[in-house]
């Protein structure tokens, strides 16, 4: 007997046992195509839903901004002067002159807290009183010609990442002032954050400032807070890193500090890392405005840095310096 041969079973029956059931090739291909079509359809539906949601948020943000702009620029009644406490007259003491050695002036190492010029009691302006009826978190208004006209809010640094000025969910978020900045006295540094939206919304169009031709045409920024109006000139446009190991690292603690030495270092970093050179003088005592947004690298930030125009300066003179700016 042959090895493996079972009595009563012929060769033909063994072949039948080895047969498997296969789908015809054409039918199998149809099932594969159907599965691919289903997956592709799901992806397209999901993508379309995302695009629709994104468009809805975009137009909702535009409408919210438009409503606030109309309210902000609407004519207002002359504000009623709030009663201010009159200074109490103090008796004048007659002092005889004494021969004293004049003190040796000590170098100033820390910036002193300042009241708002022309608004020492920090009275909220009538324009912002109207805006704050819509949302009490609104503290400022940022304007760049032909780029943006947006309210600026302040709460914490997370709340408005996915909310508009009214507090409604919106992927565009809102422009917001850093939570650490106290507006009760005049801050030396204002840090304003916003998303880098591909549509150009929020801070999406700040990328335009990397072109020196655009900068020369638009070097001035208006940023009004509820306590004072402000006009600024841009002195640096840079991409800086939050990673201390990178060559373009920026320590935001220094630029926000009251230490004169730290502010000098931070200003130098902004100037040296700018994509172009501008011969505009910047001192630690100047009030600075930094517009900050993210870029492709999660640890890098695009920064447009400006300083307040000084009382003894004119925009015409500053524009002449801007016109002489050049790429490094």
What does this entry look like structurally?
The protein is of the alpha+beta class and 328 residues long. It has a domain of 216 residues: Beta Barrel (Sortase, Chain: A). Helix content is 30%, strand content 18%. It contains seven helices and ten strands. An eight-stranded mixed β-barrel has the order 1-2-3-4-8-9-6-5. Strand 5 and strand 6 form a beta hairpin. The chain is globular and about 90 Å long. About 7% of the residues have low confidence.
Describe this protein with a few key phrases.
single chain; 328 residues; alpha+beta; Sortase, Chain: A; eight-stranded mixed β-barrel; two-stranded antiparallel ribbon; 30% helix
| CATH architectural category of the domain at 112-327 | Beta Barrel
- The CATH topology annotation of the domain at 112-327 reads as Sortase, Chain: A
Q: What is the share of helical residues?
A: 25-40%
**DSSP summary, beta strand count:** 10
User: In CATH, what is the class of the domain at 112-327?
Assistant: Mainly Beta
Class computed from helices, strands and strand pairing: alpha+beta
Distance between the termini: 95 Å
Order of helices and strands: HHHEEEEHEEHHEEEHE
Whole-number mean pLDDT = 84
**Approximately how much beta-strand content do the residues carry?**
15-25%
CATH superfamily membership of the domain at 112-327, which one? Sortase
List unreliable stretches of 5+ residues. Answer: 77-99
């Amino acid at each position: 007997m042959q090895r493996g041969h079972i009595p009563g079973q012929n060769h033909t029956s063994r072949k039948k046992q080895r047969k498997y059931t296969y789908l015809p090739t054409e039918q199998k291909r149809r099932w594969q195509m159907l599965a691919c079509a289903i997956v592709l359809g799901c992806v397209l539906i999901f993508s379309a839903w995302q695009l629709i949601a994104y468009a809805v948020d975009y137009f909702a943000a535009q409408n919210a901004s438009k409503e606030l702009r109309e309210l902000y620029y609407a004519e207002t009644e002359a504000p009623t002067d709030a009663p201010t406490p009159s200074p109490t007259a103090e008796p004048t003491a007659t002092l005889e002159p004494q021969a004293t050695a004049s003190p040796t002036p000590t170098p100033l190492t820390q910036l002193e807290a300042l009241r708002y010029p022309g608004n020492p009691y920090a009275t909220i302006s009538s324009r912002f009183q109207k805006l704050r009826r819509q949302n009490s978190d609104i503290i400022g208004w940022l304007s760049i010609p032909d780029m943006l006209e947006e309210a600026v809010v302040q709460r914490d640094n997370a709340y408005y990442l996915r909310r508009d000025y009214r507090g409604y969910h919106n992927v565009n978020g809102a422009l917001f002032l850093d939570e650490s900045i106290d507006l009760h006295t005049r801050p030396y540094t204002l840090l304003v954050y916003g998303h880098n939206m591909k549509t150009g919304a929020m801070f999406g169009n700040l990328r335009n400032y990397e072109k020196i031709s655009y900068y020369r045409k638009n070097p001035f920024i208006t940023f009004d807070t509820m306590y004072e109006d402000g006009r600024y000139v841009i002195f640096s446009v840079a991409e800086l890193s939050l990673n201390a190991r990178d060559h373009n690292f920026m320590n935001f603690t220094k630029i926000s500090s009251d230490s004169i030495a730290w502010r000098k270092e931070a200003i130098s970093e902004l100037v040296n890392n700018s994509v172009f050179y501008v011969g505009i003088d910047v001192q630690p005592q100047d009030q600075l405005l930094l517009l900050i947004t993210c870029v492709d690298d999660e640890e890098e930030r695009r920064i447009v840095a400006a300083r307040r125009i000084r009382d003894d300066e004119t925009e015409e003179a500053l524009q002449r310096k801007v016109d002489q700016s050049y790429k490094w």
